[in-house]
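Q: I have 82 residues here and want to know how they pack in 3D. Can you give me a structure?
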Amino acid sequence: MKEDRRFLLPFGIDITVENGVANIESDLTKVLPRMSDPVEIGRLISVVEGVEQLLLSLARAGVDLSKPQFAEALQNCVANLQ
């Protein structure tokens, strides 16, 4: 069994892995632009959920998300959405 881990990433993303169960708390939606178009809102929500699920999967697999490359990739991703 893998050890318990915690990762603090940009945009208030806090990932914990305890006993093989990964959880995420995120303020990612707060940094994205406000939109009134339902299609664009749905697109952004889908992207945020996809990013969060990817991070959870990587954490569960034992990937070290504390490396600076993950924070940089996350910041680049959000910049492209804005």
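Q: Anything worth noting?
A: Residues 14 and 52 are 10 Å apart (CA to CA). The chain has one domain: 5-81.
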